[in-house]
């Protein structure tokens, strides 16, 4: 193997390393879209956790808490996906912020959010919701806004 081939091989391995967390996150999110994580199933888990914390929620409170937790999960998981995608598109290159990388990350977030809700509509105990897709997109936008603000802050410090 020549020096150029070794360098190219290392660069390829480094890039693969940036994309593996994205792939893992998408696989995890696909699992979250199955019947196993339906509202009924997550509510029973949440109620157990709340009871373990020493509270005894009534059914109305449990429904409300479950709803909020599920929507927060949408926001957080898509924020994490957007951050991982941005990191993968950036692949360690400078500068820290490029609108192109953010646009690429957001495009994948939008497509995956819509596909995720479509997948949920095909399961027995779940339904797809455009509102959930909008929450997903908001999570992606939030993460990219934070990345932008942090990159601007670092540029000013330099």
> What is the count of structural domains?
1
What distance lies between the first and last C-alpha atoms, to the nearest angstrom?
Answer: 40 Å
Major sheet size, sense and barrel closure? none
Q: Tell how many strands the DSSP assignment holds.
A: 0
Question: Helicity, in percent?
Answer: over 70%
**Tally of individual helices:** 5
Report the C-alpha radius of gyration, rounded: 19 Å
Beta fraction of the residues?
Answer: under 5%
* Overall mean confidence score, pLDDT: 88
| Secondary-structure-derived class | mainly alpha
Return the string of H and E elements: HHHHH
What are the segments in which pLDDT stays under 50 over at least 5 consecutive residues? none
Report the principal-axis shape: elongated
Overall description:
It is a single chain. With 158 residues, the protein is mainly alpha-helical. The protein has one domain. It has helices spanning 3-32, 39-52, 59-90, 99-121, 130-157. It is elongated. The N and C termini lie far apart (40 Å). The mean pLDDT is 88.
Overview features:
single chain, 158 residues, mainly alpha, 5 helices, elongated
Précis, in short:
With 158 residues, the chain is mainly α.
How does the SSE layout of this entry go?
Layout (H helix, E strand, L loop, with lengths): L2 H30 L6 H14 L6 H32 L8 H23 L8 H28 L1
């Amino acid at each position: 193997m020549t020096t150029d081939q070794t360098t190219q091989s290392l660069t390829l391995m480094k890039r693969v390393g940036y994309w593996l967390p994205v792939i893992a996150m998408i696989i995890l999110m696909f699992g979250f879209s199955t019947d196993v994580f339906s509202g009924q199933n997550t509510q029973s888990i949440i109620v157990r956790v709340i009871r373990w914390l020493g509270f005894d929620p009534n059914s109305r409170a449990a429904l409300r808490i479950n709803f909020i937790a599920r929507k927060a999960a949408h926001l957080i998981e898509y924020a994490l996906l957007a951050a991982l995608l941005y990191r993968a598109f950036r692949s360690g290159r400078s500068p820290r912020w490029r609108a192109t990388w953010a646009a690429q990350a957001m495009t994948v977030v939008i497509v995956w959010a819509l596909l995720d809700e479509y997948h949920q509509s095909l399961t027995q105990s779940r339904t797809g919701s455009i509102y959930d897709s909008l929450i997903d997109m908001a999570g992606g936008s939030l993460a990219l806004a934070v990345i932008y603000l942090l990159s601007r802050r670092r540029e000013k410090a330099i």
